[in-house]
Amino acid sequence: MQTKRTIFSNRVLPYVLLAPQLAITLIFFIWPAFQAFRQSFLREDPFGMKTTFVWFSNYTRLFENADYLNALWVTLIFAVSVTALSMSLSLLFAVCVNRVLRSGRFYTTLLVWPYAVAPAAAGLLWWFMFNPSIGILPYGLRYFGYDWNYRLHEGDAMVLIVVASAWKQISYNFLFFVAGLQSVPQSVIEAAAIDGAGPFKRFWTVIFPLLSPTTFFLAVINITYALFDTFPIVDSTTSGGPSQSTNTLVYKVYADGFVGLNLGPSAAQSVVLMLIVVALTVVQFRWIENKVQY
After folding, report:
1. What is the DSSP code (8-state) at residue 205?
2. Which helix (DSSP H) or strand (DSSP E) does residue 215 occupy?
3. Between the chain's N and C termini, which has fewer beta carbons within 10 Å?
4. Taking the CB of residue 201, how many other CB atoms lie within 10 A of it?
């Protein structure tokens, strides 16, 4: 298959067209990343009056800090929980829509709405519903004998930020799963049905393997989302508490850097977080992609 190439008569024009995107990437991505990398080797007072080059001291002290190791563990639990919950519910909703296409548009519209809600607003919404004093969900849980209080119970706080973060991401996953399901050839499904495969077996042996490219792409996106974009939700609901049980890596970068004015270690944390995401993405594309059926 031949690809159509665009030929420019003026050699300068392609660079002019690329310049705005390159400028945005340089100013908003490359330059801040370079500044964080440089800052991670420095130690300075909160007022910026004195700066000392400390080599890798910020990094070594980081991995000797019990709070940072706790944040690593909390982030692992949080990222896996958000990714699993949001993708499984999205796939379930997408399968339901794919089976009732007549009312699917109305159903799809309702499910897409949460994606338009700002993360901070989504956090506040779930904060109100899970609030032990005024929330409706703790009120209902008391009838079942469970005293919900995310301010005191570490497990409740983790459940709160996982549910709020997964709810925000379900709409995004849902759209991709619906598109993937509608691209599965109907003839393949009918052939499996003729061979005697029931609905459940048809889904796991025929449909789900054909969705593997979509599932793989969404797994990368969801893990990145859980590591970086969930800061407003954590900040507006639990603020990392209680007892740092919801203090994720990205929230700890903010708390140490902007609240504690501990700039050098905070920059080192951001560099480590960036390396973790890069490593996870490389692992996913290097090993997991080999098992994806395109």
Report:
1. I
2. helix 212-224
3. N
4. 13
